[in-house]
Write a structure and sequence with these properties.
It is a single chain. The chain is mostly beta strands and 350 residues long. It has 2 domains: 220 residues, outer membrane lipoprotein receptor (LolB), chain A; 111 residues, Immunoglobulin-like, CATH 2.60.40. The longest helix is centred in the middle third of the chain and has 11 residues. The chain starts with 28 loop residues before the first helix and ends with a strand.
């Protein structure tokens, strides 16, 4: 399903996620509970001791929530990510909420089957994918981060070595096997929540002296629920043509379907439209249903239109990387749009 709404905000941040399993070489049962600060710092000094991808490999149900807040001289900001998966059901969820001053964006996509759910604010919509391919969201996002490190992503690293020399106060509850470690240095206070023997980190809280905060939570097993909703309003593919250019009185729209379109769509569900606007009224004068690949049309003003869709991947579906081209010699006020028949809506209207 289209995830353009999730990467439209340009913001550089670090949102570490993961899980720590204390190595048995430095933590036997007798020393893991309760931990002492020397053993905890020894574990934290290992840069590989906190790795969410290792956890994603071993856990079929996983949810990681992180929230980062900060303040500048002019505004406050907060971004929250929630990434979850259920491998058995082949469902995954990626949610992001961003507040920057008085501006707020709140989105979620649940996908994995041919039917998907998209949330904008508090309103849910139904989306679709003609060729669903489930991928673990943690590995998928990790690959996308490597390909586009300057994008807006939740990252999967927390530098435990930066807190491996703290003076820790550790409390424990034998019945629940919970341990809380609190440490402070000159710039921040860190709280770690650990469960089980050997202990596993399920929570991190970092409070900076500059009023910045970072809070992370890890959930596994039956705590994690990823479910699709039924009977929702259908939402169209989030796609619009690139800006046209004019050469020798010919107007062209051409380009490739961007990688942000992650759905594969049956061609007959989409139509390209050539539109003329007169007196504020839009009228379709040329149309191509994509199952027909291309067409040449003469409109009522005797102007010609050429419309083309090229299935670049050869998979028989409209998807990222496909090529499109629309051209016309019309000198009227012209537009090019996509109509999504499945959603009964124009694709450039959310």
């Amino acid at each position: 399903m289209d995830r353009a709404v999730l990467i439209a905000i340009i913001l550089v941040l670090s949102s570490p996620v993961g899980c720590l399993q204390v190595p048995t070489s430095s933590c036997e049962d007798s020393t893991c509970f309760p931990l002492n600060q020397d053993i905890l710092n020894e574990v934290l000094s290992d840069p590989e001791s906190f790795n969410v991808l290792n956890l994603a490999t071993s856990e079929s149900k996983l949810r990681v929530e992180s929230s980062t807040t900060y303040a500048t001289e002019t505004q406050q900001g907060e971004i929250t990510w929630v990434v979850a998966k259920d491998d058995n059901a082949q469902l995954r969820s990626i949610a992001m909420r961003l507040t920057l001053g008085t501006t707020s964006v709140d989105t979620e996509v649940i996908e994995g089957n041919s039917t998907t759910n998209v949330r904008l604010g508090n309103v849910w919509y139904e989306g679709r994918d003609a060729f669903p391919q489930y991928r673990d969201p943690f590995f998928d996002l990790s690959e996308q981060i490597q390909e586009n490190p300057d994008g807006t992503w939740p990252t999967f690293g927390f530098d435990t070595t930066s807190i491996s020399n703290f003076e820790w106060t550790i409390t424990s509850d034998f019945v629940s096997q919970q341990q809380i470690a609190t440490g402070t240095n000159d710039t921040q206070t860190v709280i770690l929540e650990m469960m089980g023997v050997p202990p596993r980190i399920i929570g991190i809280e970092v409070y900076g002296n500059d009023d910045s905060t970072f809070i992370l939570r890890v959930s596994t097993g039956d705590e994690v629920k990823v479910e699709l909703k039924d009977n929702l309003t259908r939402t169209p593919i989030q796609f619009s043509f690139a800006q046209p250019f004019v050469n020798n009185n010919i107007t062209y729209w051409s380009g490739y379907v961007p990688s942000t379109i992650t759905s594969e769509i049956i061609p007959s569900e989409l139509s390209f439209h050539g539109i003329v606007s007169e007196n504020g009224v839009d009228s379709t004068v040329a149309e191509l249903n994509l199952e027909n690949i291309s067409t040449n049309i003469t409109d009522f003003n005797d102007n010609w239109w050429y419309l083309l869709w090229w299935d670049y991947s050869g998979d028989g579906l409209f998807s990222a990387g496909d090529y499109y081209e629309i051209s016309t010699n019309s000198t009227n006020h012209v537009k090019a749009r996509v109509f999504d028949h499945w959603a009964n809506s124009w694709s450039d209207i959310s």
